[in-house]
Amino acid sequence: MRVYLDFNATTPVESAVLDAMLPYFGAAFANPSSIHGPGQHARAAVETAREQVAALIGAKPQEIIFTSGGTESDNHAIFGMVRPVAQPFLPALRDEGLALSREGSVPRNKAAATPHVITTTIEHEAVLNACQALEKQGVAVTYLPVDGGGLVNPAAVRAAIRPQTVLISIMHANNELGTVQPLGKIGRIAAEADIRFHTDAVQSAGKIPINVDMLGVDLLSLSAHKIYGPKGVGALYVRTGTRIQQLLYGGHHQRGFRPGTENVAGIVGFGKAAEIARESLAADAKRVGDLRDTLERELLARIPDCTVKASGAPRTPNTTNLTFAGIEGEALLIALDLKGLAVSTGAACSSGAVEPSHVLTAIGLSADQARASLRFSLGRHTTAAEIDFALETVPAAVAQLRALSPAYQPQSR
């Protein structure tokens, strides 16, 4: 038996998504920028997908810009709002769509000031590394700490705001813990201070309800392959009225905001995946959440010195992160893989990293504790039988590794 419990890393493409995509690899191959009939057929498909993605997050279709994935969306949100402030901005997005112009100015007349960004210590590398690149250009960045559950305090966000603050970027759900941040409260703080607010919603989309107005975000990043769509396509939501810089230069695709011939098949697949996610979200969350809770409860009962991280915090229903004292998480991962169970030691983008997870150390774990942790992330098609398989496999593998480890000393029972 082969069981996959690493859905936060990626998801399989749904059969209905693949079916929707296939025509655009074949007969419907035309360039959506072409004005002939086949081109306009492709254009209509792209715009339908834009509507489907917008509906998933409660946005307007014209506020959705298709990208190559979550990393590009994060980078465009951050660099587009911050780097470098002397460059002209695109005009505010209007209801009728995006228009390229060299008019506009830095929000809140901050062009002469050194810009300041607020984020957290547990962001995805797509945000953290972008912020570190900004620091090398002279931008000031505040990295807010989180508590033991991985939550940032909205009061800390308010306290970190400076007159020069131009952007707050805080992820919606953490990829390693599943912790869901109080974005609604933070969004109100950002709005009161007239500061643009970005969130990476790659790990929350399709798992919990998202409404951009309720969250109070101005920019939001999405990725298709996390919601049973294809890899290589994502989206950036940009609220109407938001001024943001152009990063890429080329033709007038997507009204000049993100030039380059659109990945029609990928975009169509993303749209279909978003549609399915919106329709099945409530049922998926209930079923998967029950399976996740069973997995946690039974592993805690069967394995001594095992703890769940962020168990008291609001979390996405599919994610759990457990620490198994006295073993190396990577050794356990390999042992489980050999037995047919695929899990993760953390973010897929960090696989092979020597350093312990920055997320786990940020919530207070020691380096050894962080390295002794595994992430289990369930998916739409995870079954009770697969959870039973995990419940048989994990305790046996942990016991075997502990028996071989002179470093393990029982701490309980």
How many H/I helices? 12
Order of helices and strands: EHHEHEHEHEHEHEEHEEHEHHEH
Beta strand count: 12
- SS-derived structural category: alpha/beta
Proportion of residues in extended strands = 5-15%
Low-confidence stretches: 85-90, 96-109
Distance between the termini: 32 Å
Supply the CATH class of the largest domain: Alpha Beta
Mean pLDDT over the full residue set: 91
Which strand order spans the largest sheet, edge to edge or round the barrel? 2-8-7-6-5-3-4
**Do you know the CATH architecture of the largest domain?**
3-Layer(aba) Sandwich
Tell me about the biggest sheet? 7 strands, mixed
**Helix proportion of residues, in percent?**
25-40%
CATH topology of the largest domain: Aspartate Aminotransferase, domain 2
Radius of gyration: 22 Å
Query: What count of structural domains?
Result: 2
The best one-word shape is globular
| Annotated CATH homologous superfamily of the largest domain | Type I PLP-dependent aspartate aminotransferase-like (Major domain)
